[in-house]
Amino acid sequence: xxxxxxxxxxxxxxxxxxxxxxxxxxxxxxxxxxxxxxxxxxxxxxxxxxxxxxxxxxxxxxxxxxxxxxxxxxxxxxxxxxxxxxxxxxxxxxxxxxxxxxxxxxxxxxxxxxxxxxxxxxxxxxxxxxxxxxxxxxxxxxxxxxxxxxxxxxxxxxxxxxxxxxxxxxxxxxxxxxxxxxxxxxxxxxxxxxxx
Length: 196
Hints:
Layout (H helix, E strand, L loop, with lengths): L8 H11 L2 E4 L3 H13 L17 H11 L11 H4 E4 L4 E4 L7 E4 L9 H9 L8 H4 L1 E2 L2 E2 L3 H7 L7 H10 L5 H14 L6
Parallel strand pairs: 1-4
Antiparallel strand pairs: 2-3, 5-6
Helix pairs in contact: 5-7
């Protein structure tokens, strides 16, 4: 089930009219993070969690499978996939897009900085191409890190405060002032910006 808030619906209609674009809301983070948390905290048994029977195939988990089977997909970042592939709901698989002449509008759900590892996973998949597993997202130069935060630090995504500026800039588009203040406090307390 997909839920859109009342302030998003008119915007999507406006974008459709303005750009004659195809809307493709595509990220199912909630399930991905359940899988992600299983993988992170169950050191030995979580490696094959996606291969277990009964684990539903989502757009997020199938991104890894798409990268395994299609070398062309490996050159795109996670949020670029809807521009070149469509989601087949019946087969629950990504397929090549027939036409790329119309602009595509995809939706990537925000993840609050309070979400910890979820936030860092989202940050990483916006910067790493062609990942074929959760473990590969946590791998940098053949070193597998224990947490996504360590990976973000290892590839210098947290070397300066630009990520926190970007987080606040993104949030100002949809959060109320008190929520922005709360986010600022969370960043100052839990996210270790450089000059607080």
